[in-house]
């Protein structure tokens, strides 16, 4: 079974600062994918960033980057130059190769302070 | 862009009613999923389907059933709604084996009174 743990239910960051959201996971599969999803107040889940476990290089999408530590099963999300529009619930998730089911963590609510 | 449409944004139903939540996707995705989202519990998988007329139980299927008669439509059915089924319901779809993650609908907030 796969599990995802997000240990920070809520976080706050000052606008323009950098914040890191933590995520650890567990999977028995050798080939898997990791995701961070954002859910703003509109409720629409948006894919922020995706990491393939076989790639050692950390994924980056503009102001969003990950720190993927495969041995430690850690997958943190770094948001640089935080903006008011980044305020949302963020979900870490893992997808195994066998059954196409994504397992989500419980989420971290991020507040941006103006 | 793939679009996943959930028929209702807000829904209020009475205890004991039969409730249908509809989800339609327009990009020929094989896989469709129903999740339930509750504060502090994240997203929990109710049912999923890999093809027409196929269905698989997720982690919390009790009290729910599903129907997939056409590839683009995946319905979640609450046979006899109860107050503990008050929640946000999210539908998602994906292409098999592409591992690009899901495309989600915008959710249905169901209140059972």
Describe this structure in words.
The complex is a heterodimer of chains A (114) and B (113). By secondary structure, chain A is mostly beta strands. Chain A has one domain (3-113): Immunoglobulins (Immunoglobulin-like), CATH 2.60.40. Chain A is built from no helices and twelve strands. Chain A has strands at residues 3-5, 10-14, 19-21, 24-26, 32-39, 46-52, 60-61, 64-69, 74-79, 88-96, 102-104, 108-113. In chain A, strands 2, 5, 6, 10, 11 and 12 form a six-stranded mixed beta sheet that branches. The N and C termini of chain A lie far apart (41 Å). The mean pLDDT of chain A is 93. Chain B is mainly β. Chain B contains no helices and twelve strands. The model of chain B has no long low-confidence stretch (mean pLDDT 92). Chains A and B meet through β5, β6, β10 and β11 of A and β5, β6 and β10 of B.
CATH uppermost class of chain B: Mainly Beta
| CATH topology annotation of chain B | Immunoglobulin-like
Report the largest inter-chain contact.
A-B, 24 and 24 residues
> What is the radius of gyration of chain B computed over CA atoms, rounded to a whole number of angstroms?
13 Å
Oligomer category: heterodimer
Question: Class by helix and strand content of chain A?
Answer: mainly beta
Number of domains of chain A: 1
Going by CATH, the architecture of chain B would be Sandwich
CATH superfamily of chain B: Immunoglobulins
CATH level 1 name of chain A: Mainly Beta
Order of helices and strands of chain A: EEEEEEEEEEEE
What percent of the residues of chain A sit in helical stretches (DSSP H or I)? Answer: under 10%
The amount of beta strand of chain B, in percent, is over 45%
**How many strands of chain B?**
12
The CATH topology of chain A is Immunoglobulin-like
Low-confidence stretches of chain A: none
Helix-strand string of chain B: EEEEEEEEEEEE
Number of helices of chain B: 0
């Amino acid at each position: 079974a796969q599990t995802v743990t997000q240990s920070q239910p809520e976080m706050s960051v000052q606008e323009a600062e950098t914040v890191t959201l933590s995520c650890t996971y567990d999977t028995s599969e050798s080939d898997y994918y990791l995701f961070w999803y954002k859910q703003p107040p509109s409720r629409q889940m948006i894919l922020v960033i995706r990491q393939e476990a076989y790639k050692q290089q950390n994924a980056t999408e503009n102001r969003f980057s990950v720190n993927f530590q495969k041995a430690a099963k850690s997958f943190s999300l770094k948001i640089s130059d935080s903006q008011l529009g980044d305020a949302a619930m963020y979900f870490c998730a893992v997808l195994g190769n066998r059954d196409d089911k994504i397992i989500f963590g419980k989420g971290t609510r991020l507040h941006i302070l103006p | 862009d793939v679009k996943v449409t959930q028929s209702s944004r807000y829904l209020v139903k009475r205890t004991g009613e039969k409730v249908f939540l509809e989800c339609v996707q327009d990009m020929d995705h094989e896989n469709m999923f129903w999740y339930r989202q509750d504060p502090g519990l994240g997203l929990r998988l109710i049912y999923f389907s890999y093809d027409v007329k196929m269905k698989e139980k997720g982690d919390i299927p009790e009290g729910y059933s599903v129907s997939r008669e056409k590839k683009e439509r995946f319905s979640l059915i609450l046979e006899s709604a109860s107050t503990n089924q008050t929640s946000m319901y999210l539908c998602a779809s994906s292409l098999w084996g592409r591992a690009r993650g899901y495309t989600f609908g915008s959710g249905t907030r169901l209140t059972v009174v």
